[in-house]
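thought: fold this chain, then report.
action: predict
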Amino acid sequence: MKIGIFGGTLNPIHFGHLRTAEEVREAFSLDKVLFVPSAFPPHKRKEDMETPYERIEMTRIAIEGNPYFDFSDMEVKRGGFSYSVDTVDEVTKRLPEAEIYFILGVDAFFEIDSWKEYRRFLSLCNFIIVTRPGYEKKSLGESLPLEVRSDFCYDNLY
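observation:
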């Protein structure tokens, strides 16, 4: 089973998130896309966001009717700052046979070396990096920290 994890603040979740998730699901033949609203992302200010519970409810409503979409409140239940490495660990424990794909925007990927345990995180799953309006196209390989660049291969679907 191939599972995509679509995390982030989802503040609020919008058509761009849903469209991206569906296109990624189709392009990579994912069986499910799991939306995981963060509790408190360390790179964002809490004052600028709806509460985690409001974002969970918005996500639940937004994905209703798509049989390939699901959501989890695991980061909110875990409490504190939300770290993607912990989320991937938890999904892997719950679904040990699943092949995990972490979906994130190129803007977030360009800052991956500031994430908790980013080297271990990069080794835990596959990554699907999606473009975003307003971000300069540069090589994904160039954006990786030098010490991990040689560990990756890159496929450009589009």
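thought: worth noting. Residues 7-71+90-102+121-139 form a domain with the Rossmann fold fold (CATH 3.40.50.620).
final: tokens above.
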